[in-house]
Write a structure and sequence with these properties.
With 359 residues, this protein is an alpha+beta fold. It is built from seven helices and 18 strands. Helix 3 crosses helix 5 and helix 4 crosses helix 5.
């Protein structure tokens, strides 16, 4: 077995665990050499689905190779996939102003390529949902694949949502974050958050429901203008807390298996957050680009990005309690195909919820 990181791989940005989407320290399927896993355990869990394509690829490869070559392959073995060096220097902020290496700009969004297009956070509180969606969110997503809206609901509403989330957390209803189709404790090595799935009808979650309806409003106004997607539903809300003990979430892809999720929407609830002290940055590595984007989880900030492999991302270790609410929106066609192939996975991410009207 070839150890991870033993040699650079130019295709690394297109490699991810077929089960959980993790993109680091990958092992390659020794049979087809086309699929990757973060562990042998995930390879075994995914085998029922993977074997359908793995054997076809293996047969084609053997037909193209001399007999002596095919004998060298071991059935079911894995080989390492390299982890190329990460980009280190943060050169310019999203506002276009220069900053020193490794330092954050005041808006909390950094980009490590000074020649890249400017990604400016918009203020949601000053715009109508329709104007915000049509004039800012849709164009920004189509251009960058990432979009940030600051001051989305205003301080008073944001604080009321935070109060709901803190009460939910204190009630003991949060559980350790799990991976799609994950049944073991190994996910703790990949993600360190605690979560609760909320539909919005639960007692004490009225403000969370209001947030979800406002998210739905924006998506409804953007519909048919976000790439080629036709959005017709979403997941429940995942309310998440990183407890501040240095845990994070390793680099991964939200939707590596075309399960229907097309847009990730995150609302942050962290007052007076300082990433230089508290950590907890969301770092996005847009596919095919040399730069990354650092998103600071500031209070009343709303973030959108494509859910598929175009946006691998990680949550860096958080050293203060970090709250966020995430919703994933479904593309109707991809979701239908996923259901036919039984690729929707398990858990609340697989539960479709209709878009809500604004309260």
């Amino acid at each position: 077995m070839e150890e991870p990181g033993s040699a650079p791989d130019p295709d690394r940005d297109r490699q991810y665990c077929e089960l959980c989407g993790k993109m680091e320290n990958l092992l390659k399927c020794g049979r087809c050499r086309n699929s990757f896993y973060c562990s042998k355990e995930h390879q075994k869990q995914h085998w029922k689905k993977h074997k359908l394509t793995c054997r076809e690829v293996e047969e084609k490869q053997r037909a193209q190779k001399p007999p002596s070559d095919s004998k060298k392959e071991q059935q079911g073995s894995t080989e390492g996939s390299s982890d190329a060096g990460k980009v280190k220097d943060v050169i310019s902020s999203a506002e276009g102003s220069e900053v020193s290496e490794g330092k954050l700009s005041d808006d909390g969004i950094n980009n490590n390529n000074s020649s890249s297009s400017t990604l400016r956070p918009s203020s949601g509180a000053r715009s109508s949902p329709q104007k915000l969606a049509l004039e800012y969110i849709a164009p920004c997503m189509n251009k960058h694949g990432i979009c940030v809206v600051d001051n989305f609901l205003g301080e008073e509403t944001g604080l009321s949502i935070l109060a709901d989330v803190k009460a939910l957390h204190q009630s003991g209803k949060f559980t350790d974050g799990q991976l799609v189709s994950q049944k073991s404790d190994s996910s703790k090595d990949i993600r360190g958050d605690q979560i609760a799935w909320i539909e919005g009808q639960e007692p004490g979650c009225e403000k969370i429901r209001f947030l979800m309806s406002r998210m739905d409003d924006l998506i409804r106004h953007c519909n048919d203008k976000l790439g080629n997607y036709r959005i017709n539903g979403r997941t429940k809300a995942m309310v998440a807390c990183y407890p501040g003990n240095g845990t994070g979430y390793v680099r991964h892809v939200d939707n590596p298996n075309s399960d229907g999720r097309c847009v990730t929407c995150i609302y942050y609830l962290n007052k007076n957050w300082d990433a230089k002290e508290h950590g907890g940055l969301l770092r996005i590595f847009p596919e095919g680009k040399s730069q990354f984007a650092d998103i600071e989880p500031k209070f009343d900030r709303l973030l959108f990005f494509w859910s598929d492999r175009r946006n691998p991302h990680e949550v860096q270790p958080a050293y203060s309690t970090r709250y966020a609410i995430t919703v994933w929106y479904f593309d109707a066609d991809e979701r239908a195909r996923a259901k036919e192939k039984y690729l929707t996975g398990s858990g609340e991410k697989g539960v479709k919820v209709e878009l809500q009207q604004a309260v």
